[in-house]
Structures are given as structure tokens and as C-alpha cells.
Amino acid sequence: MKKRMLFVLAALCALFTVPSVAFAINYSGPVTHGNFAGNSKGCADCHVTHGASAAKLLKGGTNQTEFCFVCHGNAGISGFDVKNGKIQTEDGTTWNPSWAGGFDQAYDFGGSGTYKAVTSVHNVEKDSGSTNMPAGVGNGFQIPGGSGTLADNFRCGSCHNPHAGGTYDNTTYTSKNPRLLKKAPLGVDVPYMGLWTISNTTNNTGTNRVTQYGTGINAWCGACHGVFNTEGVAGSGHTADVNGKYRHAMGVLVSQTTHPEWNPGLDSDDGIALDSAGKLNCLSCHRAHGSSATTSNGFMRYASYNGQAQSTSSVLLRLPERDVCYSCHGAAQYNKPS
Questions:
Q1: What is the pTM of this model?
Q2: Which stretch is the leader sequence (predicted)?
Q3: Total number of domains constituting the chain
């Protein structure tokens, strides 16, 4: 009888000391927010069935974003700190800058080489603990570069599926999707093959930094910002669209062979990345979450980091001013004053 009791106690100890798969940082094995059938404890990490203090049976927080930041923010248990734009190495020893940027702070790749307050963000719901993050946008907001409007608050779940298990939701594709990107943002079903993020093999030693997308990110971003997605539109920079506007070509091959007038200095340390086919994508110039880049002049007049429409927004650019232009159009530097 004593042996049986000891066995039961040992089993219980093992049960409660196994780390939750729901927060694993692992691209090759079980991924974040998944494998619930194999370890249903993950459900209780986020939800309370009969006494939740927040909508969707969430454990806490005034909104979904604030709840997500419990793990993905200051001193959170996740290795992905989206609030401050950092990603932790798998061994937990080092924090590296995230190419996506952060919602409160972001690494200044093109300047001081330090974390600075954001100058523009994707305006998700505000976290009460944020010092720089603006209030989010909500129902009826006209999406920049798109014909649609928001039917609800813009939040983490607008782009990510927390229950996707790191794979494509509701598809037969087996490729990993460690960023938990939704298949149908804003209700628009987008092509999914090859959308998953991958590490740049020349710059990922010992880190989890994701620096490159496969293919398809233009269509995915275009689910909301469809006007800006000119992929497959020949001569888009020379022909006005139905709105009378000229748009930079997207999805074009960036090479001096195809475009000898270009000079693509696409060093990943500069935060400029092409897709796996060597083509221009949205994230070649912009960050997904937030940017600390500074700019003194511009023509974009959508809401900036402080929620006000202005012409000096950094519009999620990866580098200061319009330095991203020099990454491909190197000859333009000779237009500067002598």
C-alpha cells in the first residue's frame, strides 16, 4: 500500500512540474499555444471557466492586448516580448531585437543601436502599463490602404490566432506558422502556402530572430491594406490606379541582373529583408508591430503613435527618414547636397 501511495505521489509531482507546452519556445517541436489535446493544462493558463474577470473567459486584463502582455510584455514568461520588441534565445540567456519591433519600444537599427520609444505602431488596444503606446483604433476605423473598416477593436487577435498551434488553421498545409498568423484577417481568405516565417541562416546563430518570410506576406497584409498590394500589377509605378494614385511595385524581383539601376544592399543587419524568392515584400520596408525610426517629413497622414493624423509619422518604417529607399536605389544618394 505504501509503495502504491509513493508511486501516486511521484506521478503527481511529475505532472505538476512538467512545463506547459502552451508557452514553449521551440520551432521544431511543440509550438506556442498548441498541443492542447496532449496537454490540456494550456487551456487553464489563459482561461477560467466559471469565474473569469475578462471577456472570452480570460483570466484578467482590461482588454485582450493587456492580457497578452502578461506573458508577452515586461517580465513575461514568454520569450517573445512584443511590448518591448525583444526575442529571447532558446537557452534563455540573451534577448535580441525583434525585426517586428515592439508596441511600446523598438530597437533603433538605423541609428543609436538602443531601444527607443516607438514613433508609430499598429494601433492595437492600449495596455494600461504602457508608457509610449497609443490608444488603439476601433469599430468603424477606415483602414489605411484598404477599402474596409474595422467591425470591432483592433487587437492582437485581429492578426493572430492564439489557438492555431503554430500551424495553419483550417488548412491541410503542414508547414510551421510560429507567428500564429490568421488565415483570414478581416475575413479575407488569403493564399497560405509558404507564408510561414523562417530564420536567416547567415544571421541566426543561437537566436530565435526571424528575419525573412517565405512567400505570400504581401497577400496577407493586403487582406486589410489591399490598395497597397500591387503584386502582379505590371507598371504599377507608372500607371495610375482607379483612385488616380501611383503605387510602388510589390513582389518584384530585386536584383542587379533584372534591374541594373538598383543597388540592393540587403544586409539583414539593416533590417531589410526580401522573401525567399528574392522579391520585395511589405516587410522589406516596414515593421509589423512598431518602429522607433524618426522622420521629419512625409506625406502619410494616417494616425501615428499618438493617435493624431500627421505628416511626420514614421509609418512603421524600418529605418530613419527614407533610408529604406537607399537599400535598393543606392544611386539616389548622389542627389544629396555636396
A1: 0.76
A2: 1-24
A3: 1
